[in-house]
């Protein structure tokens, strides 16, 4: 995982896509479900190539192994510089990961990844992570303030990685694959 996500930062799409099974599925909040290693690579490469620089952080990972299968959870913190020379105004996204892995010989490959969006900061001036799902609010903190929304009311909730607006006082929620919180 770490090798693959560091490869994303270097735009080494071949190394990154080699971490995925041929029949893999990617589910990412604002995108439709994407099936197949090559389709996943094409979508992510098209979305992330325009950024001047990127960092993909995977945090608080936990993986359970059962024979030749494994499931995992963690958190994503993606930071991107949208314009060369403007490193002080990055765009960032954060949210939960759910993974399913399968062992192929000596290698573990991603079979399914669900990635939700709980928050964004800055402005995605490149529009790489649209379109947004109906009813979701992926605006930055500044964008929510501009539209009269406080952080409390603009927070995104996630159930099974789908994003939906929270009601006042509700916290983001999620359920790991095959389990309860």
Automatic annotation (TrEMBL):
Residues 141-154 have a biased composition (Basic residues). Residues 5-112 form the SnoaL-like domain. It comes from the Bacteria. Pfam families: SnoaL_4 (PF13577). Residues 129-154 are annotated as: Disordered. This is Nuclear transport factor 2 family protein.
């Amino acid at each position: 995982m770490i090798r693959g996500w560091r490869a994303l930062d270097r735009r080494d799409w071949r190394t990154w896509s080699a971490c995925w099974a041929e029949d893999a599925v990617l589910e990412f909040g604002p995108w439709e479900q994407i099936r197949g290693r090559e389709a996943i690579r094409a979508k992510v490469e098209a979305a992330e190539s325009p950024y001047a620089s990127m960092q993909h952080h995977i945090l608080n990972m936990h993986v359970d192994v059962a024979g030749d299968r494994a499931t995992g959870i963690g958190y994503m913190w993606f930071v991107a510089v949208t314009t060369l020379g403007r490193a002080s105004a990055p765009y960032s996204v954060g949210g939960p990961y759910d993974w399913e892995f399968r062992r192929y010989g000596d290698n573990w490959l991603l079979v399914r990844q669900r990635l939700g969006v709980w928050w964004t900061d800055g402005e995605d001036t490149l529009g790489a992570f649209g379109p947004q799902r109906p009813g979701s609010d992926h605006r930055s903190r500044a964008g929510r303030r501009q539209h009269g929304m406080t952080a409390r009311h603009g927070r995104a909730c996630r159930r099974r990685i789908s994003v939906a607006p929270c009601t006042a006082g509700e916290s983001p929620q999620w359920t790991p694959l095959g389990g309860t919180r």
